[in-house]
Specification:
mainly alpha, Flavocytochrome B2, Chain A, domain 1, 2 domains, 47% helix, transmembrane, Cytochrome_b5
Length: 106
């Protein structure tokens, strides 16, 4: 555990980087950045102690509540499919009719 409160204003990456890692194991975050050897040496100055792993609560797996299966009305499903077929056919028919009947005789 490290207390870097005194280092917040001096951190080259800004205080947001340190604040985003509070309350969790930030070891991977620290290693991913690729800190210099001088940065690693500074860690000794901020070291507070080790975490007692027996006090860490275990995570329980989330199980979503069971929901009843919703069955859609078969009639409305049929009507929707029929309209999906008929509406484009009607538009095509109207377009053909307008073109055919408004054509000027040659």
């Amino acid at each position: 555990v490290y207390d870097v409160t005194k280092f917040l204003e001096d951190h080259p990456g800004g205080d947001e980087v340190l604040l985003s890692a509070t309350g969790k194991d930030a070891s991977d975050d620290f290693e991913d950045v690729g800190h210099s050897s001088s940065a690693r040496a500074m860690m000794d100055e901020f070291y507070v102690g080790d975490v007692d792993t027996s006090t860490i609560p275990t995570k329980t797996k989330y199980t979503p509540p069971k929901q009843s299966h919703y069955e859609q009305d078969k009639t409305s499903d049929f009507v929707i499919k029929l309209l999906q077929f008929l509406v484009p056919l009607l538009i095509l028919g109207l377009a053909f009719g307008v073109r055919f009947y408004t054509k000027s005789p040659a």
